[in-house]
Amino acid sequence: MATDAPISTEPGHPLEHLEEIGREECLRLLKMHGVGRVGASVRCRPIIYPVNYALADDSILFLTRPGGDLDRATEGTIVAFEIDSADFTYHEGWSVLVIGRSAHVSDPSALKRARGLSLRPWAGDERTSMIRIVLDHVSGQRISHRAPGEDVGDSIE
Questions:
Q1: Is residue 36 one of the residues assigned to a domain?
Q2: Could you report the average pLDDT of every consecutive run of 10 residues in the chain (157 residues)?
């Protein structure tokens, strides 16, 4: 959902309800969420993988199956990572996008610290290869149809 074009908030503009989310708010949302999607290239095709993750040391960490497609696709590449939330009743929601360098975590002390983050892959215990995505670019957007000044809060997380 991220764009380089400025978001217009002029009354009557089609995007008047769309607002950028600052980096600090994006990081807050990343800390509380826990499930996101990694976008990578596998055999020259874009693929999206859902993952359980943790945010630590300005990086996203997740576990994957050693030697699997996601493990190979995140070996020193640039990837996208996204989380979002939507309220289908009110047509509101938010999205956070991270673009960053991915790498396998192999340093024993870094692995030990990361293992304490309670990463529990829903897909099974065989996910033991730890991947780090550095937060090179973090952006977010929120769409809301509430009245100006009305607190949206975290109602759609």
A1: yes
A2: 48 66 96 94 93 91 92 95 92 95 87 73 80 97 73 51
Q: In whole angstroms, how far apart are CA 44 and each of 51, 73, 75, 121?
A: 21, 10, 14, 26
3-state secondary structure of 70: helix
Q: Is 130 helix (H, G, I), strand (E, B) or coil?
A: strand
In a domain, 154, yes or no: no
For residues 96 and 128, give the distance between their C-alpha atoms in angstroms, rounded to a whole number. 26
List the domain range (segments joined by +) for residue 33: 18-143
- Does the pTM surpass 0.70? The reply is yes
The rounded distance, in Å, linking the Cα atoms of 117 and 75 is: 22
Q: Cβ of 65: how many Cβ atoms within 10 Å?
A: 15
The pLDDT, as a whole number, for residue 144 is 83
Q: Domains in the chain: how many in total?
A: 1
Residue 41 bridge partners (DSSP): 46
Residue 53 lies in a domain: yes
Whole-number Å distance between alpha carbons of 17 and 10? 9
Please choose, from the candidates 82, 93, 101, the residue with its C-alpha nearest in 3D space to the C-alpha of residue 139.
82
Q: Looking at residue 133, which CATH number applies to its domain?
A: 2.30.110.10
